[in-house]
């Protein structure tokens, strides 16, 4: 829903071309479920509340990236044969590093494969380095793309991410009668600001990079206030 609203807003309100519109819609769609969602949920509700977060994370990146890739490749098609577009979408999806990593994780978990201890130790070292490295990279991105230009578009995207997205999830959660733990995980994830993957997607296609980077910056800053509203609602 937020992807569609971002796409429509970018095209209708801000007169961006289709490729920019897809990148902007992806920013509104992709919450920072790891760097923000996990620690906020754990701090507010305890480690036992993280089960729902991990379930969301397992499908969050591959599903959203697939939506973004399909949308971008369709926007870039410009009348190309459907077979060529489908081939490009399939190739771009299976070559994405996040989707590859998550797919391998599914294979290991579903088949019960045992990872050799030497390899597991190496993976653990990479896991411990992943979050600091991501934060360092995010800082570099925000330094390069100063919060200037396209501010109306950025504010629109941030509003979708921090307000509309969690409101939609809260409404749907009420309709399907989610449990307290499930609702908390879903809302905190939806209410988290756009993450670094939103910028990486924009950078991968060279589209709306300033909007993506500035939305991550302003969204993360605004998140420090907006998340308290949802914590009060969910407490």
UniProtKB/TrEMBL annotation:
GO BP, one annotated term: transmembrane transport
One Pfam family linked to the record: Mem_trans
UniProt main location, coarse: membrane
Organism: Nereida ignava
Gene Ontology annotations for the cellular component aspect, listed alphabetically: membrane
Membrane-spanning ranges: 21-40, 52-75, 96-119, 125-142, 154-173, 185-202, 211-233
Membrane topology according to the record: Multi-pass membrane protein
Protein name from the UniProt record: Putative transporter YfdV
Locations listed in the record: Membrane
InterPro entries listed in its UniProt record: Mem_transp_PIN-like
The entry's keywords: Cell membrane, Membrane, Transmembrane, Transmembrane helix, Transport
């Amino acid at each position: 829903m937020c992807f569609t609203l971002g796409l429509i807003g970018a095209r209708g309100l801000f007169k961006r071309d289709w490729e920019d519109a897809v990148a902007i819609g992806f920013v509104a769609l992709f919450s920072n479920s790891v760097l923000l969602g996990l620690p906020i949920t754990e701090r507010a509700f305890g480690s036992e509340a993280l089960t729902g977060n991990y379930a969301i994370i397992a499908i969050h990146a591959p599903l959203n990236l697939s939506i973004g890739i399909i949308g971008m490749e369709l926007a870039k098609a410009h009348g190309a044969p459907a077979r060529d577009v489908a081939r490009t979408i399939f190739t771009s999806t299976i070559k994405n590093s996040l989707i590859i990593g998550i797919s391998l994780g599914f294979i290991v978990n579903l088949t019960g494969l045992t990872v050799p201890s030497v390899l597991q130790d190496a993976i653990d070292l990479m896991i411990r380095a992943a979050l600091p490295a991501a934060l360092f990279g995010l800082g570099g991105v925000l330094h390069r793309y100063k919060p200037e230009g396209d501010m109306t578009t950025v504010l629109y995207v941030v509003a979708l991410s921090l307000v509309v997205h969690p409101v939609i999830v809260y409404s749907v959660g009420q309709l399907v009668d989610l449990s307290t733990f499930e609702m908390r995980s879903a809302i905190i994830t939806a209410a988290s600001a756009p993450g670094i993957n939103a910028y990486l997607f924009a950078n991968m296609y060279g589209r709306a990079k300033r909007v993506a980077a500035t939305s991550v910056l302003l969204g993360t800053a605004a998140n420090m206030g907006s998340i308290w509203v949802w914590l009060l609602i969910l407490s």
